Amino acid sequence: MSNKLTGVQDINQSEQVCDVTALKCPMAFVRAKQALLHYQTKVFLFNDDVSLYNFCQYLDKQSILYKKNAMNSTFQIDVLQNERNI
């Protein structure tokens, strides 16, 4: 089930994914950041290079560790841990 406002999709009760592949910057970045801050989302899907770059820059500035994986034309960002305990 997807929340159309945030772009957050429930995978199961303990994990969520934020799929913003249908959006372009700046909305993809804004929705991903909201999902991170408000829903503690750990998995993000991007296909917009600008949004991907901006989100990774934001994570770096916040000292949030992450892993980036390429899957065809989509990139997956997995948040590993951070100093703010998001």
Written overview of the protein:
By secondary structure, the chain is an alpha+beta fold. It has a single domain, classed as TusA-like domain (Translation Initiation Factor IF3, 2-Layer Sandwich). The protein is built from 2 helices and 6 strands, in the order βββαβαββ. It has a 6-stranded mixed β-sheet, with helices on one face. The radius of gyration is 12 Å and the shape is globular. The two termini are about 25 Å apart. Residues about 10-15 have low confidence and may be disordered.
Report on the biggest sheet: 6 strands, mixed
What would CATH call the class? Alpha Beta
CATH architecture descriptor text:
2-Layer Sandwich
- Give the averaged pLDDT, no decimals: 84
Number of helices: 2
User: Which oligomerization state do the chains in this entry correspond to?
Assistant: single chain
Provide the spatial order of strands within the biggest beta sheet.
Answer: 1-2-3-4-6-5
- CATH homologous superfamily, by name? TusA-like domain
Would you tell me which CATH topology applies?
Answer: Translation Initiation Factor IF3
Helix share, percent: 25-40%
Describe, in short, the structure shown.
The protein is α+β, with helices and mostly antiparallel strands. It has helices at residues 27-39, 49-61, and strands spanning 2-3, 8-10, 16-19, 43-46, 64-71, 74-82. It has a single domain, classed as TusA-like domain (Translation Initiation Factor IF3, 2-Layer Sandwich), CATH 3.30.110.
